[in-house]
Amino acid sequence: MSSTGKKISNEEHQRLQYLINSRYEQEYGASASSLSAHWLDIDEAYGGTEALLVPGFAAIVNGMAKGLKFSLASKFSSCTGTDQVQGME
To answer: Comparing C-alpha atoms, which of 14, 15, 35 is closest to residue 25?
Structure first.
């Protein structure tokens, strides 16, 4: 059940299990049932919030590549960081 008393869907339960595993169990090397909620996140090495990328890290790459022109299976000799690629075959 959620904090509102509503039953969560199977997909929501799987996401929650993934977050618990990736955020806590892997970081601390223990099962969630053996960890203390009182001491979690006490070190906070990095600021800001975290996000679950449901479509995977491709969402970041696709966002960064938006508007770029590229051709698969093409060879090039250099890239200057501008719009032009040198030595395209």
So the answer is: 35
